[in-house]
Amino acid sequence: MGAPMFQDTRIKTVIFPDVAVGDRVYLHRRKIRTTPLYPGQFEDWTFSSYYKVLSQTLRYSLPASMPLYSDARGYAATPPRVHADRTVYEWVLAAGDNPRIENNGVAFIDHGRRLLVSTFADKASIRRNSCCDSRLLRETSRTSRCRIS
Predict the structure, then answer these.
(1) What is the mean predicted confidence (pLDDT) over 96-115?
(2) Full DSSP string of 107-128
(3) What is the residue-wise DSSP string for 9-69?
(4) Considering the domain boundaries, does residue 51 fall inside one?
(5) Interatomic CA distance for residues 73 and 113, integer angstroms
(6) Taken in order 111, 113, 117, 122, is the CA torsion positive or negative?
(7) What is the pLDDT of residue 129?
(8) Does 106 reside within a domain?
(9) Among candidates 142, 145, 124, which has minimal Cα distance to 133?
(10) How far is the C-alpha of 125 from the C-alpha of 118, rounded, in Å?
(11) For residue 112, is pLDDT > 70?
(12) Number of domains forming the structure of the chain
C-alpha cells in the first residue's frame, strides 16, 4: 500500500550565510503536491513556529469547483479571489506575539497558531472517504469501527 504523504516529499535545506544580529531573513517557498493523500481531495496543515515570524502569507489555488474549508487559529483569511476556472484562497499570519508556552503542554502546536485547510466539508466526509479509500480496502476489511454514515 502506498503512502503519498511520504512518497512525494522532498526536504530542502536553505542556508543563509553571514546572517548577523539585526538582519532580516526572507524565504519564499512553493509547495506542489503531485499525489493527493485522498484521491480527488486536498488538505494541508501549517503550524507556526514558536519563534517570532514578522510576516507569513499562505496561498492555495484550487479549481473553482473545489471549495476550501479551514480551521485557523492566529491566521486571518482574506476574501477568496476567482481567476478564470480557479479560486485563490489566502491567509495571513496575524501580527502579535505567540501564545505563551503552557506548563506540561505536549507541544507548542497544541495551543499555538495553526492553519488547517481541506476540501472536506466536515469530519464525517473525511471518515467516509477514508473508509472507502480503495488503497485501504485492498489490504483491510471493513469493521464496525469503519461505517459510512
Answers:
(1) 74
(2) -GGGTS-EEEEES-SSHHHHHH
(3) --------TT--TT-----------SS-SSTT--EEEEE--SS--S--EEEEEEETTS--E
(4) yes
(5) 5
(6) positive
(7) 67
(8) yes
(9) 142
(10) 11
(11) yes
(12) 1
Widest Cα–Cα separation across the chain: 59
Read off the C-alpha cell for 80. 477568496
d(CA 68, CA 117): 7
Residue labelled with grid coordinates 524565504 = 27
HSE-CB at 149 with a 13 A cutoff on CA atoms is: 8
66, 119 Cβ separation under 8 angstroms: yes
Query: Model confidence over 66-98: pLDDT tens digits?
Result: 999 999 988 999 999 999 899 999 999 987 777
Q: CB–CB of 63/17 below 8 Å? A: no
The size of the chain, in residues, is 149
Query: Sheet harboring 43-47: ordered strands across?
Result: 43-47, 114-118, 69-73
Q: Is 56 part of a structural domain of the chain?
A: yes
